[in-house]
Amino acid sequence: MSTSAYPPSAGASSPGSGPHSYHTPSSAATLAIAAFPALEGLKKIEFDGVGEFLMPDGLCFQRAREDLYYEQFILPDENRLFEWQSAQWMVGWEEVYIKDGKIVEDDG
Description:
Elements: H1 26-35, H2 58-66, H3 68-81, E1 98-99, E2 102-103
Antiparallel strand pairs: 1-2
């Protein structure tokens, strides 16, 4: 969707681009429906937070959770911040396309 209402790289995850911040104010839904009316008939995902973990395999995530530092410092924060009983997850992969030795940017 090409509109000035959206940052040019919102949600992009190019290698080396660092962490991203996703924001989902109700005004964004209004803008999206105005630009793409078919969205109005679809169920909108309702959540107030999302975590994205990019890793070479799932084992590294499990190993991190078993680390003493994680157990002492990260896990207590997680337990205060997250409602694990309502958490959902999905798994996938990132595809990066290279042409002539350069990353192909998705310009819509």
